[in-house]
Amino acid sequence: MKTKLLPGAVAAVAALVASCGALAQSAGSIVVYGGAVQINPKVDSGDLTAPSLPGTKVDVKKASQVAGGITYYWTDNISIDLPLSLPFKHDVVGAGAIDGVGKLGTVKALPITLLAQYRFGEANSMFRPFVGAGLTYGYFFKPRATAALSGITGGTPSNPTTLSMKSRMGTTLELGGAVNVTRDWSASLSVTKTFIKTTGSLSTGQTIETTLDPVSIKFGIGYRF
Amino acid sequence: MKPFLTRIAVASAALLGSLLVAGCGGGASADTTPAIKISSVKVFGDSLQDSGTFGYKFTVQSPDNLIYAERIAANYGQTLCNFFVFTGTTFAANTAKTGCTNFAIGGGRITYTGAGGAANPLNVGTQMATYASAAGYTASDLVIIDGGGNDAADLVGAYLAIPKDGAQSYSALLGTLLTPAQIGAALQGGAATVAQIGGTYMTALADKFAAQIKASVLDKGATHVIVMNVPDVTITPRFQMVLDSIAQASGGGSAGATARAQSQALFQGWMTAFNTELAAKFAGNDSVIVVDFYKGIQDEVASPAQFGLSNVKTPACPITGLGSDGLPVYDFPSCTAAALSAAPPAGVSGGANWWKSYAFSDSFHPTPYGHQLTQQLIAKSLATKGWL
Lengths: 225, 388
Fold this sequence. Notes:
The structure holds 2 protein chains of 2 kinds.
Chain A: H1 2-19, E1 30-40, E2 44-45, E3 56-60, E4 63-73, E5 78-85, E6 88-96, E7 103-119, E8 127-145, H2 147-152, E9 163-165, E10 168-180, E11 185-195, E12 197-202, E13 207-211, E14 215-224
Antiparallel strand pairs in A: 1-4, 1-14, 2-13, 3-6, 4-5, 5-7, 6-7, 7-8, 8-10, 9-12, 10-11, 11-14, 12-13
Chain B: H1 2-24, E1 29-30, E2 40-44, H2 68-75, E3 84-86, E4 91-93, H3 124-134, E5 141-145, H4 149-160, H5 162-165, H6 168-174, H7 180-188, H8 191-216, E6 225-228, H9 237-249, H10 253-282, E7 288-291, H11 293-302, E8 319-322, E9 328-330, H12 337-342, H13 368-385
């Protein structure tokens, strides 16, 4: 999905850039954008509580998804951004004492973020770097465990071990840049770092404290209304 | 422009809303499909893997108390039943239930020296040959093999009997695999060589076992084979008592403690010799996983709480008598889950479930939870190999 989308998007931007000059990201503008996001958790796992192999840890792999959002320009320089996306599906894999056992499960994540952004330059600047900060609610749902997780925790197909991840609030910082391609069309690229922790639980009773702190790269093409 | 904007806003709100609703039913689920399809599990070995040859399992009795081989089979949606039944004098095919593929028998050894000799299925090699003579293996067969624990216990027993029988049983056991010249030289060489030849024997025992596994299992087409190495039997309650008596015989105190530690190190050295050779024999063989059972149970006994164990020293089953060797005797058929739950010993925690966190059922065999921990140990190897 993503690999198909990105070259197309790049081509579209290139065409737009070629077409004409730039204008506006000014107060009162609402920009709706669409694109793609890759979330890459930088996991620092605690140890799974007993009973377990000493030093049992987990890692959470990166995931990509089509995404978009709405940006409202409060002033010419201050904007409020609400990113929207389909849920991300992350693989949870073994680490530490169980490094190598592979996938323990998948968990869907829907980060709900609200960012306040400061955009440098003038409303009609061609290129406007911006910084942002805000809150993220990491909503984790539909965890699906594997046979491997059941195996290493004493579960069976008739009584499988399941996992869950607690939804938590975190803070997000953003650094990005937007190119005003035409009066209404723009393209933006940003990198966000979210500071968020979660507690994973197994149906067999053990828990694991995990720092996720994902770095996300977001690309979007926006249209101003 | 305005209606379009409204539409976008509505659509966005609807999208966000639908995602939240979708998430609300987000209960945990499990995909229980293993990485590979296993349609039959074949088991060879001793009491640790015996599904009921004698009418009971070598653990606490209860229909839902599975031994580790059965738990691994369950991971692949399979069940096990005993191929052999004990007739009171010998072993016959199980006719009450046919199609059973667990050939393991309590008391099984790599080298069984009692009645019936090499043809007795108490030889794990004979169990493997029994199946191999009837059928081969496919890629959807999982094979679980253990052996050597009783052989190691025999060797320790024979070694400790040297002062009483003038090394008669020790040299007889060594003679099953080593030459008279080797044994003679060792026995005349003094305490050090008498001890050392035990390691030589265990290495030869591993060679024998590996050759049997190759001939009767791997060469017959098996591609998913689990071989359990020998667990450290010195940490079982039975051998702890044996070691305690060694300490006592050496006068107790620090001299006794030294003798105890030296003996344990010697016996562990023998088992390590076996395990090192076994691992070397299957190194690089993509069809075989050698599970480090030896270290697995050492870890459990070293840090019980980490593994959810409340007691790794005392057997959960009651003592029913004293054996000819002066060690306590236990009775598995009467050691049921119900009986144990009904009579928690004074001072234990967990109420009726007290025995469920014990490591040992009798002085030599794990509880059902001990079996679960071993199953988890095996599952870790299976998952790492990409088989689970």
